[in-house]
Structures are given as C-alpha cells and as structure tokens.
Amino acid sequence: MKKIGLALSAGGARGLSQIVILEAFEELGIKPHIISGCSVGAVIGTAFASGMTANEMKDSVREIILKDHHKSKELFKGFDMLKILNLVDLTVNSGGLIKGEKFINFIEQKIKKKRFEELDIPVKVVTTEYWNRKEVVFDSGELLKAIKASYSLPALFTPSKIDDGLYLDGGLVNPLPFDILLDECDIVVGIDVLAKNSVNGNNAPSSLDTLFSSFQIMQKAILNEKLKTSTPDILIRTDIKGVRLFEFNKAESVWKQSAKYKDELKSQLSVYL
C-alpha cells in the first residue's frame, strides 16, 4: 500500500471543514501514514491521529460551541469578546489576551494522549519560534504544549514556552505544511481552507476584522509562493462562505458546505489506490 501523507491547514472556524473532509479516509477504509498540521489543522489532525472519528470530533465541537454558549465563551471568548475589545484599550503584559489553558485541557480530555509517541498515526505540528523567527516542527515529546503553540495566534493567545523557546501560531510561517511530508510519502494530500474573503458587504470592517483578515491574507500569500516551487499530489482548496475567522458557532454551516470537498478527495484518492 502506498504511503499517504495528509497536510491540514490553518484557517480558524473555516478549518472545521477539514473534519468532514477526513470522512473521505473513513469511507474508503484507509488511514494516512503521517499527518502534518498547524493551528486548527494541528488540533484536528492530532484528534484524528489519536483515534477519534470525524463524528466524534463534530460532537466535541457541538459540546463546546453550540450546546453551551456560556461555556464556549469561557473556552474561546468568541466574537462577544472581540466586539468588546473594539471599544477599549488594553494593556497586555503576557504577550496575548487569552491563555488558552481551558481549551487545551478540553483537548486533552478528548484525545487522551499526552505524548506524540502515543498517537495511532505519527503527527508533525508546525509552530513559529518567536526569538529566532523560524519554523519549528514538533513530532516527539509533549503533545499538548506543541498543539497549544501551533494555534497561539499573535496578540490573541499568549505564546507557549517550551524549553528555552517561545512559540506562536505555525500559520505565520507555514499555513499548509505539505512540504515537510514530501520526502516521507508516496502521495501527499493537502487541504487548503484559507478562503477568499468569506463575508462581503458594504460596511467597513471592524478593526479586529481587519487585523485578523490581514493575518489570513498573509497566510494565503505565503502558501501561494510555496506552491510555485512544489505542490502536493492532491490539493483540495475549499471556499467556505459566510463564516469569519472566529465564528465557530457556524460549524454546521461549514460542515454542510464541505460535503462536496470530501467527495472531491474521495474521487482523487481512488485514482491512486
């Protein structure tokens, strides 16, 4: 059997589409040989590698986002917090507004793994080391610290300290880390959820909308430059509409829009199998 590598991208709430796309592997009865990911892609990829099914991941999202609004605000602080921040000036001494500990504790409860070596499928988690301004890939040792580092969006989440390093969101340097799998696999699949502007309108965006949309514009530019020199064997590029970066409460809409991309991946994988 050919070795399949799966790369999952950053993308905030739109990144939840990758859960549905993973169903292509389940329905074909195959598993990736190795998974890479950053930010939301690192979270979803690790959950899949731990043995969680796509449906179990959906149920977990519903548990923390859809069924208990108060709990979701505690875990993510969501758009309610972001709207408030547009009205006030804050002094931040810890490098970010949210520690993110509650969310990482929730992840630990679900995946039930503490180290990379315990996962059913090897995973590479991409982060950005702040002091040296470079990409760092974690694939061994403590799992949860690496995951938290990978989704630590600058200014929003506090950076993660691992040994002597300070780590931020991997999307700053490699928003779709397919390239780190090319030498290890026969087939590399990349899932790009870095959409175009997902919400159109005549009103000017808020300051925070502008800030975080600018971050995604940068990620898209990085990826487009990478694709000029190398590409995954299969590249699925989604276009999830009507969902902003932190609108995780729109998960059901994301999943509904993602079914066609799952079918696209199944079709393309079948050619190689």
UniProtKB/TrEMBL annotation:
Keywords: Hydrolase, Lipid degradation, Lipid metabolism. The keyword Hydrolase applies. The keyword Nuclease does not apply. It holds the Pfam family Patatin. One of its GO terms (molecular function) is hydrolase activity. GO terms for biological process: lipid catabolic process. This is UPF0028 protein YchK. It comes from hydrothermal vent metagenome.
